[in-house]
Specification:
With 84 residues, the protein is an alpha+beta fold. It contains 3 helices and 4 strands; from the N terminus they run E-H-E-H-E-E-H.
Length: 84
């Protein structure tokens, strides 16, 4: 079973980012997966790419959701990635 790389891209003082952390945390915990967070505040290339879409969830480098994280969709995407 593959372990997908889950990255949440956030920025400081972002209320949507707080909700996204909770959502990603719930979904990944239920599947026994880990995730990482990257702040655009310290990464100009991320800030330029995702400025209007933060928070953003990447799974294996592919953008899968932004703004409000859809937990059922993220669960589906992760299960499909794990099945590969």
């Amino acid at each position: 079973m593959a372990k997908p790389d889950v990255v949440l891209i956030t920025k400081a003082d972002c209320h949507l980012c707080e909700a996204a952390r909770d959502a990603v945390g719930r979904v990944t915990a239920a599947l026994g997966l880990e995730w990482t967070e990257q702040l655009v505040d310290n990464r100009p290339e991320l800030r330029e790419r995702y400025a209007e879409e933060i928070p953003v969830v990447l799974v294996d480098g592919i953008q899968r959701d932004f703004w409000k994280i859809d937990e059922p969709r993220l669960d589906r995407v992760l299960r499909q990635a794990m099945a590969k």
